[in-house]
Amino acid sequence: MLKQRVITGLVLALAFLAALFALPALGFIGVMAGVLAYAAWEWSHLAGLESAALRGLYTLSVLALGAALAGYLGYEQNIIFAEKPRFLLLVACTWWAIALLWVQSYPSSAILWGRRWLCLSMGLLVLLPMWLALAGLISLTAGPQLVLSVVLLVALADIGGYFVGRAFGRTKLASKVSPGKTWEGLLGGQLAILAAVLATGWVMNIEASRLLLWVGLAMVTGLASVLGDLLESMLKRQRGVKDSGTILPGHGGVLDRIDGLTAALPVFGLGLSLLYNRL
What we know:
Blueprint: H1 2-22, H2 25-46, H3 52-73, H4 83-104, H5 110-113, H6 116-138, H7 143-168, E1 172-174, E2 178-182, H8 183-204, H9 208-239, H10 254-275
Antiparallel strand pairs: 1-2
Helix pairs in contact: 2-3, 2-6, 3-6, 4-6, 4-9, 4-10, 6-7, 6-10, 7-8, 7-9, 7-10, 8-9, 9-10
């Protein structure tokens, strides 16, 4: 099982890096639209749709809304700094603040989102802003590096949380949603991010005032990734399944791999848009 997990992880990493650095921006956005489509397919199952036809219809609806959103915003270099994308990212981050309350109050919060149509609607708020943030970040000159940075921040939050949680975890973070997560693990993830950003700042000789902003943005992004993970765990627990799918041997489904990014990307995108003149 471990060997299979490692092989799948390496293949995914190489494929992602190839798409990120070898494809033009619009090509990468197109590939990510494919990821968005499969994530929507899995979300429809977590929301309670059983029929392949209905799940396909939901997936096509998500893609259609994504295309309509792209048509509305247009695409140009540095578009993430424009007013419309910034506002949509702000709406997305506001939604994630509400999601935090739902995770904290689970299972009683299920009365608010547990109905099928509400859960399907929630999928739009989770998946589309992630894709919007990806498209916005990749429009920048340093887009590939920034996208990779977010992925690494999510990985650091996850890895630091896992090892520190295993060694020192005592206080449950959200016992009814994800019993394995602890406050100590959350702190471990934050410390891993802090160390990585400080080391990067030292190597790149970034001035202290700018580095402090990068540290703040990175740590908030890491916290958001934990929330994205918890939200998907909440849906899986409500649905009574371990994984969102089976397409990735040893890893589960696509949503199981991108759950942290669903929250981290909009948060990072909004923060970068608001602070770019000072970073």
